[in-house]
Design goal:
The chain has 560 residues and is of the alpha/beta class. It is 35% helix and 18% strand. The chain has 19 helices and 18 strands. α1 links the parallel β1 and β2. α1 packs parallel to α10, α1 runs parallel beside α19 and α4 crosses α5. The protein is globular and about 75 Å long. The structure holds flavin-adenine dinucleotide. The site of flavin-adenine dinucleotide (FAD) has 39 residues, from α1, β10 and α17.
Length: 560
């Protein structure tokens, strides 16, 4: 006989967004049960000792924070420290890798000289600054709306116009972002640096008509209104563990190793825990899992048994027609490395501390990004593979043991672009992992004075400290369907003018077709990335509904 329990709210999934929702709702006095399939919470916002016997706690999947509002940190009393990076980015010139563009936030003159050194026209540095200053007018206007009910498109546009961002609204929201980049900038390399913001985890071209690249671009610049991407001190796991602490201290029950297997209309959630089938009923069910995973959990068909991939069944029969945007594939390969020391560059004019101190772009010129898209579209791994690299331990050595710090060791995280999930299947996954790792290593070595393989530390089991994750690996590890790091296609942070706004869930962008089931994760409108905004907004929708219900009762004279 299955055990059953009753709650105000059941949350499916303990990613950082589910934890944020749990913390807000428990603080408001709700009885909250959160069910997490894995043996730990955090989802894709976790730190892990990835290499056998090596005391390095890597941000295993997500690594930088931009979109987490200070308001949420303050509301929940989170002890999170974010460090700003001095260098914005370094991009070697693939045609001549002995030189590169270093954008140094602390030295405008050196940055201007660096633009000249890669052959950019004289006015390019100023044009680059102007481009981002214009974008900041738009992001500065929209950022404060992220933790409020959704504005309509017209309302958002009015906010932009009031901030003097009419032109940039046209460029970023209405037309493919490629137009603005090619109009504003001349250099192939500089255009590429800007375009990467539109392509993280998103398989699109600069001129794709569905504008997914524009939405991705907007989110990459939106955080704090400035688009700074900061380093979470202690690693990404600190963000989730602080949210978990806040939720537990507020009284939420967090059950790990609890896999939800079915969600029934009426608020009954079935799950497996300790080898037992159990169920929990609630007034509200909040879904931190991706929308297609939720569809599958709500499907009348039986769920696959334990051991099936977390995203298993994504795309299978669902209760309502699946929104095609929810099925969008992920498009990246993730590689973590632990090095004896930072590598020397072919560009002798720049030390590795500066080059790896910001985002290191490799083989990401405008032309290379477009060539890579075409190669992937034709079913091959791009060569060279466009990659973004970041070194956590330069900004925050605390993720390494004192011995590793003293030895000069460093972590590197690589995010390879334009590897759409369509290239990866259950049958070829291992071979693809090997091939993608080789592609990343080749791309990296194309700008180094020494092979990166020679610098890898070795784990206690004798294997080199390098781990590679395909889109399928990510689906299996944390349940992101098709390895999509945003749980599906992104949506604009506003609703269309004619969209219904009749319920709190719709106003907050967290609704499903069942009024008792809300999205509280990356799949909520505005939920993508490590932001806790999906969790916050779902919690606000529940609390607003409760307030409206109690006002209704009061006005009918039914409360004391
Ligand atoms: C490689 C990679 C790099 C990234 N880099 C960044 C970055 O640098 N900065 C950034 O802001 N964002 C980044 N992202 C995106 C970011 O990590 C996600 O948008 C964010 O973690 C989503 O959080 P979430 O809480 O909504 O969902 P998730 O983190 O996906 O958590 C969902 C949770 O639900 C659980 N679950 C799944 N199925 C079930 C079930 N049946 N029953 C119970 N529990 C279940 C999962 O185990 C998981 O814990 C990256 C993502 C990836 C994969």
């Amino acid at each position: 006989m299955a055990e059953n329990s009753n709650h105000d709210v059941v949350i499916i999934g303990g990613g950082h967004n589910g934890l944020a929702a749990a913390a807000y709702l428990a603080k408001a006095g709700q009885d909250v049960l959160l069910l997490e399939k894995l043996d730990h919470a955090g989802g894709a916002a976790v730190s892990a000792r990835a290499f056998d016997g090596v005391d390095a706690r890597l941000s295993r999947y997500s690594y930088l924070v931009s979109l987490l509002p200070q308001e949420i940190i303050d509301d929940l009393g989170l002890r999170i420290r974010l460090a700003r990076r001095r260098y914005s980015s370094y991009t070697p010139d693939p045609g001549s890798p002995g030189r590169g563009l270093l954008i140094d936030n602390g030295d405008a003159a050196a940055t201007a000289a660096s633009f000249a050194s890669v052959g950019a026209p004289a006015a390019e540095a100023a044009a680059f600054d102007r481009f981002y200053a214009e974008c900041r007018k738009l992001t500065g206007a929209l950022w404060p709306t992220m933790t409020s009910p959704l504005p309509t498109r017209s309302e958002a546009r009015q906010l932009a116009e009031a901030a003097g961002a009419d032109d940039v609204w046209e460029s970023v929201i209405e037309r493919p972002i490629g137009d603005a980049i090619t109009r504003g900038l001349q250099s192939d390399l500089v255009r590429g640096v800007v375009l990467t913001d539109a392509l993280i985890g998103t398989f699109a071209r600069a001129d794709s008509p569905d504008l997914q690249q524009n939405i991705c671009f907007l989110y990459h610049l939106l955080g704090g209104g400035t688009g700074d991407w900061d380093v979470p001190i202690g690693g990404m796991g600190t963000v989730s563990s602080e949210l978990e602490r806040a939720a537990r201290e507020a009284g939420a029950t967090i059950l790990t190793a609890a896999e939800v297997t079915r969600v029934r209309p009426g608020g009954t959630v079935h799950y497996r825990h300790d080898g037992q089938e159990r169920s929990a009923t609630a007034d509200w069910v909040l879904s931190n899992v991706a929308p297609v995973v939720l569809d599958r959990l709500r499907s009348p068909e039986p769920m696959p048994g334990p051991g099936a991939g977390a995203g298993a069944g994504a795309g299978a029969a669902a209760v309502a027609p699946v929104n095609p945007n929810h099925l969008r594939e992920g498009s990246q390969v993730k590689v973590n490395l632990l090095l004896k020391r930072l590598p020397q560059l072919l560009d002798r004019s720049i030390g590795p501390e500066a080059a790896f101190g910001g985002t290191f772009h490799i083989n990401e010129t405008w032309t290379q990004l477009d060539d890579a898209y075409r190669a992937a579209e034709q079913g091959t791994i791009p060569d060279p593979l466009p990659c973004e690299i970041y070194c956590h331990s330069l900004t925050d050595p605390s993720i390494l043991s004192t011995e590793l710090q003293a030895s000069g060791a460093h972590t590197l995280t690589v995010f390879g672009l334009h590897v759409p999930d369509r290239l990866v299947t259950a049958e070829n996954n291992e071979a693809m992992r090997t091939a993608l790792q080789a592609a990343v290593v080749n791309s990296l070595n194309s700008v180094l004075a020494e092979p990166i393989e020679d610098l890898l530390l070795t784990g206690a089991d004798g294997t080199p400290c390098i781990e590679t994750r395909t889109t399928l690996d990510i689906q299996r590890a944390v349940g992101m369907p098709r390895g999509n790091i945003f749980h599906g296609g992104l949506d604009w942070p506003f609703m269309e003018d004619d969209a219904p706004r009749d319920t709190p869930a719709r106003r907050w962008g967290v609704s499903t077709d069942d009024p008792r089931i809300l999205l509280c994760g990356s799949g909520a409108r505005r939920g993508g990335a490590v932001s806790a905004i999906g969790g916050h907004n779902a919690a606000m929708a529940v609390l607003e509904s409760l307030a409206l219900a109690s006002e209704g009762l009061a006005s009918e004279g039914l409360t004391s």
